[in-house]
Amino acid sequence: PELFMEKYRSFSTADGARQRVDLHRNFRSRTEVVDSVNEVFSRLMSSRTGGIEYDEKAALYPGAVYPENDGCRSELILAQKPDQASKSDAGRMEALAVAARIRELKAGFMVTDKESGLPRPSRYSDMVILLRSSGGWDETFRRVLEEQGIPAYISSSTGYFDSAEVRELLQLLRVLDNPSQDIPFFGVLKSIFGGFTDEEIALIRSAQKGLSLYESFREAAGEKTGKDSEASVEIPDALCKKAADFLETIRSYRRCAVYLPVRELLTKLVSDFDYMNYVTALPAGERRRANVEMLFTKASDFEKTSYFGLFHFVRYMEQLEKYNVDYGEADLTDENADVVRIMSIHKSKGLEFPVTFVGGLGRRFNMQDVSQPLIVDVDLGVGADYVDPIRRIRNRTLRKLAISAKIREESLAEELRVLYVAMTRAKEKLILTAVVDDAEKMAEECKLLGEDRLTYMDYMEASGFLDFLMPVIGKTGISVNVVTQEDIRSESFKEQMTLFYKKERLERLGRAEYDFGGGEEHAEADGALEKLKERLNTPYRFSHLAGLYTKTTVSELKIAAMADRDEEAYHTFEEKEVQPYIPAFKRGEEKVSGTVRGNAYHRVMELLDLDRLMNAAQRGEQDKELGDFLGEQVACKRLYREYRDAVSDRKILRFLADPLAYRMWQAKKTGKLYREQPFVLGIDSARLGEGMPENETVLIQGIIDVFFVEDDGVVLLDYKTDSVDSMEELWKRYETQMDYYAEALKKLTGMSVKERFLYSFHLGRSSKAP
Questions:
Q1: For residue 383, what is the enclosing H or E element?
Q2: Is 83 exposed, middle or buried (0-12, 13-18, 19+ CB in 10 A)?
Q3: 8 Å CB contact between 424 and 37
Q4: pLDDT-derived band of residue 580, with 50, 70 and 90 as boundaries?
Q5: Which of 160, 198, 305, 679 would staple 744 via disulfide (CB 3.0–4.6 Å)?
Q6: Residue 637 pLDDT > 60, yes or no?
Q7: DSSP secondary structure, 202-253, as one string
Q8: How many Å apart are CA 433 and CA 93, to the nearest integer?
Q9: Contact 748/742 with Cβ under 8 angstroms?
């Protein structure tokens, strides 16, 4: 800012080499918004308060044209702080006041459409809430708005662990790991997984004093814990059975946790309780669903590490939360989403919104830089406290006081500029909000005691934006409104009554028992009911296209084809590999998985130096040369040690003795051997099955293991490590895959595929397509 101020003072509006051009015409905002900004800052800013004289040269002049609208007057909403309220309670009260105003605007406020220039009803996406800094208030605002049925979006890198759906799942995992933890156990009881009320939990807990919550439930279920307790309340039989059923459910999942990977355990929990549909039905359901899916992803990522098991996953997530390694909630919002956006004032620079709420004006400025024991200023240097270590006293020095005053003055000037940025984001309506101790009294005082200008003393003593505004707001055209807890309760009661009557009307309509006093109107009600039933029961016209996708893989099409041709082979691929819990001292004896073995052979065959190995065969040294070659590949990190250990040298040598290996070698000499060739093939979707539309392109991607070109065409080869009894069985599994590979090669090379081969490392031989 100092650089701009220097130019502002040294340049003039007269013609010349140092001419200043004032860009003071505002093409964004309505006259009402521009007038409010000018009225406020002409009273706040001067050469002493803010560093610039806000006169007719600095003022804004409206340049935008809008249709008439009587509801665009700027407002200041003062929310009454609850008695003995904490910071979170204060933020919640202000958020409730903002939510109530948003509902009013959504119901009747008109904004100007950007495309047509004509008035239209306001949407949530027309509104923004600006805060000086988050400090947790952005999450409070979002949570309150969503509770009130208002979709809200906040661009944040935090909040993931605070989201209810993630917290509930993590609490359940903690209980499955160790049920003797009262806080997670209580959270699970209260969630959809337990379904207990506060009264039921309190009854069971009070009936077994001196025990943990888990032990209390065991006693209620009729299990003997062997611990002394003082039973003082009788528990109903129905509640005892409910507790027993819950404990059995927990035990069944604990048994699964012993051998299931965390990702699969989470999937089972979410599926069994239909948890995904449950969270999707809640306010902001799409984001909640995405948060749960993100937890699945994190579980998968965890399983790729050297750790394993539920115990380690729970500790892993606890450490992330403890050290603030927050992922931030899943971001599903695009620029067209109909949501109220919540952002910091700094992030709003350059943006504009039809309705702008500038919130948190009652919060205090951050002036920590002024009060530190050692402060630094670019002009005045260093200021420090005087410290006498002998007498153990500390005092501020005159130098530090002077530097502190300068830093404070500059900081306040910056806060004024931030307030200016926030207020000028509004296009059609500006609403300022704050939560204060005595809202009614403050509103009356500002109306009666408004000042023409902010004094330098008031400026230097300001601790927040409201201290800037309140002395001068009474002299502006900004209306001051007070919102109390009683107002919020009244609005909530009215809304609940409206919803109650709507529900009652729907129930009466469902029973077709409206008393209209005439058969014609009664018949009309029945007709409306039938139309509603017909609409709700109408099947989706394009449900037969549920299997249509824009992109898939050859492997997926292969498995789908096997489901039709070879049911037994299909189930071989369908079943997932069981991953039982194995102690660390035993894991060294664990066999290599089929997936790792398949990847290992494909990687070795991709790297294989045919010239070196075929020449070594002529010398009778192929066995040794292969071992040396693979060792070199591991040493230069082109081949994982795990892959090297998974590959049998004997099986590789057996392949090198196959006639196909010799043909590959000859093709390599002429530069016509291709290995691990990726491709993307476009086919008509009608080929995927009956009922699929024609002239719709579906992309298929895959990787061809080997193909080579000979004089009369292309030869296709694919390696397989499946444990099969015959090559006929292998071809039955992979015929569809090879068909797609051949089709892709024909388009890729422009040549026909004359031969197709499968090579089985398990059987140690190749086979030509039947």
A1: strand 381-384
A2: exposed
A3: yes
A4: very low
A5: 679
A6: yes
A7: HHHHHHSBTS-HHHHHHHHTT---S---B--SPPPHHHHHHHHHHHHHHHHH
A8: 11
A9: no
**Length reported for the chain:** 770
Report d(CA 389, CA 387) in Å as an integer: 6
Contact in structure between 452 and 43 (CB atoms under 8 Å): yes
DSSP string computed for 687-709: GGSTTPPSS-EEEEEEEEEEEEE
Q: Which amino acid is at 367?
A: M
Position of tokens 């909630």? Answer: 329
Question: How far apart are the C-alpha atoms of 524 and 516, rounded to whole Å?
Answer: 10
Residue whose pair of structure tokens reads 């521009």 in the numeric block: 34
Contact 659, 670 (CB under 8 A): no
State residue 691 phi and psi, 5-degree precision: 90, -10
Q: Return the HEC string of 474-495.
A: CCCCCEEEEECHHHHHHHHHHH
How far CA 115 is from CA of 26, 118, 120, 350, in Å, comes to 19, 8, 11, 20
737: helix, coil or strand? helix
Per-residue model confidence as pLDDT tens digits over 673-687: 999 999 888 888 777
The beta-strand segments (E) located in 91-151 are 110-112, 119-121, 127-131
Q: Which pLDDT tens digit goes with each residue over 13-68?
A: 788 888 888 888 889 999 999 999 999 999 999 888 888 888 888 889 999 889 99
Conformational region of residue 750, where left means phi above 0, alpha means psi within -120 to 50, and beta covers everything else:
left
CB atoms within 10 A of CB 298: 20
Residues 38 and 26 sit within 8 Å (Cβ to Cβ): no
Closest by Cα among 719, 607, 706 to 664: 706
- Pick from 344, 492, 445, 457: nearest CA to 78: 445
- In the chain the first and final C-alpha atoms are separated, in Å, by 80
Contacts of 126 (CB under 8 A, 6+ apart): 111, 353, 354, 355
Question: Pick from 623, 725, 708, 718: which is nearest to 673 by CA?
Answer: 708
pLDDT in tens, 409-438: 999 999 999 999 999 999 999 999 999 999
In single-letter form, the type of residue at position 86 comes to S
Question: What letters, b where the CB count within 10 A reaches 16 and e where it falls short, cover 717-752?
Answer: bbbbbbebeebebbbbbbbbbbbbbbebbeeeeeee
Which among 557, 555, 766, 748 has a CA at the least distance from the CA of 654? Answer: 766
- DSSP for 568-583, written as a single string: HHHHHHHSPPP-----
Q: Is 472 helix (H, G, I), strand (E, B) or coil?
A: helix
Q: Sheet harboring 479-483: ordered strands across? A: 152-154, 340-344, 127-131, 353-358, 426-436, 75-80, 479-483
- What's the rounded Cα separation, in Å, for the pair 370 and 372? 6
